[in-house]
């Protein structure tokens, strides 16, 4: 059966781990404080996402509106101008 | 993003494609028919791009445009004041008229996300409040005018072929030919609108915004069901 860990803990000598570990002074444990979303940039990301969504919405509404308006206006100009030119 | 865009604009996109395909189809068969007629009259045939810029093609396009925009112009106008109980195309009885500022979310009742001109007052608010009707009406008048200009040229071409004197634009717009072209389109538009309003009282199309929900009682308009 394959071990879940590649090297069983017992197989590693204590001296080897001590040598490999850098000598970092231990600091007192800090209380784990969850930063509020705005401190982590979460609210900004959220606002950006909302703004992007609103922008996409505006584009998806504006494109068909202006596409159809252009067709109608160009069509009218052509249908009025050509007969006036005697075509 | 592109997929989302395509999904959210599919209705207008589908009609745009259908419109362009049918306009191209109309121009091709119109071109073939026009050349048949020229041949029968012993005249030389014309090219496709020459045909689509002639009044013979434009009058047929314009006369259909004007009737469609008239249809929507009148429908928008009529649904302000007239009610059809049970139709999803109609407001509910008692709601006739322009509605209060509160109902319409205008002026001081506008929401934060209301259009800017809905928050305005005076002329700007009046224009925006009627912008759909004004636009449809303007397109109707202009395309009807285009029909009269193009039809006038076609009529004078025919007069010339038959050895008749040309007529003025003023004489053409009161002629039987102009009104024949006009009224044959108008009657079909009014037929379709009237039938749609009446049929939708009792008939349903599941999933369509033009229909009431399938199980909604016949006497209930779609606005009441919301």
UniProtKB/TrEMBL annotation, chain A:
Keywords attached to this entry: Membrane, Transmembrane, Transmembrane helix
Transmembrane stretches, start-end: 65-85
Keyword Transmembrane helix among UniProt keywords: yes
Name of protein: Stress-associated endoplasmic reticulum protein
UniProt organism field: Leucobacter alluvii
TrEMBL record, chain B:
Coiled-coil segments: none
Superkingdom of origin: Bacteria
InterPro entries: DUF6766
Keywords: Membrane, Transmembrane, Transmembrane helix
Transmembrane segments: 65-83, 125-146, 186-203
Chain intervals for the UniProt region annotation (Disordered): 89-109
A Pfam family per the record: DUF6766
Protein name: Transmembrane protein
Organism from which the protein derives: Leucobacter alluvii
């Amino acid at each position: 059966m394959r071990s879940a860990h590649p090297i069983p803990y017992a197989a590693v000598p204590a001296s080897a781990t001590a040598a490999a570990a850098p000598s970092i002074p231990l600091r007192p444990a800090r209380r784990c404080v969850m930063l509020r979303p705005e401190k982590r940039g979460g609210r900004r990301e959220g606002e950006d996402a909302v703004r992007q969504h609103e922008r996409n919405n505006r584009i998806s509404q504006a494109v068909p509106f202006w596409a159809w308006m252009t067709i109608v206006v160009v069509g009218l100009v052509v249908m009025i101008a050509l007969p006036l030119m005697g075509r | 993003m592109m997929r989302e865009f395509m999904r959210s604009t599919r209705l207008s996109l589908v009609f745009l494609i259908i419109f362009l395909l049918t306009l191209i189809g109309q121009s091709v068969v119109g071109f073939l028919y026009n050349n048949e007629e020229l041949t029968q009259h012993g005249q030389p045939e014309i090219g496709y791009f020459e045909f689509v810029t002639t009044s013979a093609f434009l009058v047929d396009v314009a006369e259909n445009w004007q009737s469609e925009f008239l249809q929507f112009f009148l429908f928008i106008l009529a649904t302000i004041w007239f009610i059809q109980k049970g139709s999803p195309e109609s407001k509910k009885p008692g709601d006739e008229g322009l509605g209060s500022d509160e109902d319409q979310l205008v002026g001081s009742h506008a929401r934060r996300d209301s259009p800017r001109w809905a928050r305005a007052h005076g002329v700007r608010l009046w224009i925006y409040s009627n912008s759909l009707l004004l636009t449809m009406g303007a397109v109707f008048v202009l395309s009807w005018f285009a029909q009269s200009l193009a039809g006038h040229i076609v009529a004078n071409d025919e007069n010339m072929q038959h050895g008749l004197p040309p007529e003025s634009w003023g004489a053409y717009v009161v002629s039987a030919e102009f009104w024949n072209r006009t009224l044959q389109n108008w009657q079909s538009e009014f037929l379709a609108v009237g039938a749609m309003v009446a049929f939708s009282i009792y008939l349903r199309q599941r999933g369509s915004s033009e229909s009431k929900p399938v199980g909604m009682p016949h006497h209930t308009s779609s606005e009441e069901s919301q």
